[in-house]
Amino acid sequence: MKAARADVTDGNMIAASSGAATARRITVVIALLYGLVCHVAFAAGVGAMMVVLFTGMTRGLGRLPSPWSWFADAALLLQFPLLHTALLTKSGGAALRRLAPPGLGSPLMTTTYALIASLQTGALFLGWTPVGPVLWQAHGAAFAAIALCYAGAWLLLLKAIVDAGFALQTGLLGWRAVVRGASPVYPPMPTRGLFRLIRQPIYVAFALTLWTVPTITPDGIVVALVLTAYCVIGSIVKEARFARRFGDDFTKYRAKIPFWLPFPARKQGDA
User: Fold this and answer.
1) Where are the domains of the chain?
2) What CA–CA distance (Å, rounded) separates 234 from 81?
3) CB 3.0–4.6 Å: which of 31, 33, 36, 116 could bond 175 by disulfide?
């Protein structure tokens, strides 16, 4: 009888272990697929932005007639900064946890955020309906010089993203942690690389991509103005968030490193 009970207990333990292993494999597959979707959307969204922005917003796929195109373009333009900022709030974080697969909301928060941002970017630049005429088009040496500046702005943005934490910024952090069976480890306050020169290199580089284009149109000017304003406001909001999170460390860092332009702050008593 005791032997039979032992066999039953061993069988239950084996079944439980097998069930846990199966659940773990399912979780890993879900995380991998979620990460794949995120990174494909990220590449597509950034690629669409690079191409459409470079053409002065003349290559959007939207074809709505006016005046409906104006309302649609305005909605596409405003949805990015508004939702992007809202998701960084406490209630936004709760929404991100609900949007992820059940049971993985917290560890996949960064991946979900990156996925939504990628979809927003793709919607803005692919769904845009070109409205205005071309006001100016660079040619020859001017085109080559501006194109080099545009490429440089994107390289600066990539460098800033790497310095801030590539895994965090691209959504890799969340799904990779789930695959490894660990909690996400967030990077420390960024202070290296471009962050030694200015406090907000990501926003500055992003703004530079908006203004270093060889085709000038009313559409492109409006997009550049609105998103540059978002970069400035977003920088201020981010600094407040960093002050709450990192406390004295950020206060000391802010006292030493300039905000947007790499010029040292003037000390009191300087002429």
Assistant:
1) 2-256
2) 8
3) 31
